[in-house]
Amino acid sequence: MELASFTFSRLQQPTSFLLRFILMQVFARTKYFPFMLWTFNIIFLFCNRIYEGYSFSIFGQQFEFLDNFRGTFRWHICFNFVVLRMISFGYDYHWSQLDSHFDQEKHVTRCCLCKLGKTCYVVRQERGLASDSCSFSLYLCYLVYAPLYLAGPIISFNAFASQLDMPQNTHSFKDVAWYGVRWLFSFLLIELMTHLFYYNAFVISGLWRELSPVEIFIVGYGVLNFMWLKFLLLWRYFRFWSLVNGIETVENMPNCINNCYSLETFWKTWHASFNRWLIRYMYIPLGGSRRKFLNVWVVFTFVAMWHDLEWKLLSWAWLTCLFFMPEMLLKSASNAYKVESAFGEFLLRELKALSGAVTITCLMIANLAGYVVGPSGINWMVSSFLKREGVPVLGGVFFSLYVGTKLMFHIQDLRSRVHSPK
After folding, report:
1. Which of its termini does the chain have fewer beta carbons within 10 Å around, N or C?
2. Residue 56: phi, psi to the nearest 5?
3. Is the whole-model pTM more than 0.70?
4. CB-based contacts of 356, cutoff 8 Å, min separation 6
5. Which residues are designated catalytic?
6. What is the mean pLDDT of residues 336-354?
7. What mean pLDDT, rounded, does the chain reach?
8. Domain range spanning residue 82?
């Protein structure tokens, strides 16, 4: 019976794939195609979640008993990534038909890696494919590509299709093997953390409410580091097998979570492939930086709804957007104001360090609210830090984050000196 339920859920996917492919083939040359593409996929995404992957009972009460044997694999959760791939295929095919987006000389920046004669991911993504290469078999292969099907990383259709004929040559066999060894070390680290540190146990059981302000901060910070390591393991595992198969994808966790002092930097290094997807297929079509103060609200609202239909995720998205506003204003002001004196540079650096400490604090609050304790838990946490015994702890935490931000500035300066041309 579980096999019957699994088969039923799997039959729905090729049907929806075929329907979308036909619609894209018919309407790809029209100007309203992006609106139709987004509307169709968002409605289907919502229906999958609202009806929990659908059930046998919709065909009649006599089949209702089969819903008790649906198994543990929830196809509609993994289908969220398939929706992103369908939108990617639709846009890349639409742009190739209009010949209005792909211009290798204008849109592709030749990096140092490309100058070595290797075809990097950016070149593969921005190079338009021929119309006859967008067949249904290639489209289906892209949607259900096994190494990346469950959790990504997300790869654009152009980048995927170009590597079927010419596998990636960016990473050598030695690089891929070392990548797998590093993943094994990370796995051993998370096993060690799970056995020695009980951050998640405190959060899940609710015992963190009984802790002191110092302990609450340690638990909250530990949970965020555990989440980073957990997702790093998940994404690097699937990326490793994709590299073994000759398909290069974006590294989802290129930097450690403790090396991010701005929201922009954080979102470029946390689920980086999704960030690139959002910029390419959502942020830029909406107007890009010309409407950035409005676009971030639209983008993060979609991200929250894409993850799940929960109020705590919407609160996370809107808190992130709210915290994003001062950073964008400060960045715009610093770009417009040119500092010439040494004192001005020192003052600007101190302001950036202070804003970095504020950003890290806000980032912790937003992520804890969205993924750990919820909005009500954040209210309780903030009130505990504003008490008499909590204010010195809050000051110490803020000072520590300020010093950490200045240390990250120093590391960034050292890297720029190392990589700068002599």
Report:
1. C
2. -70, -20
3. yes
4. 261, 262, 401, 402, 405, 408
5. 307
6. 72
7. 78
8. 2-165
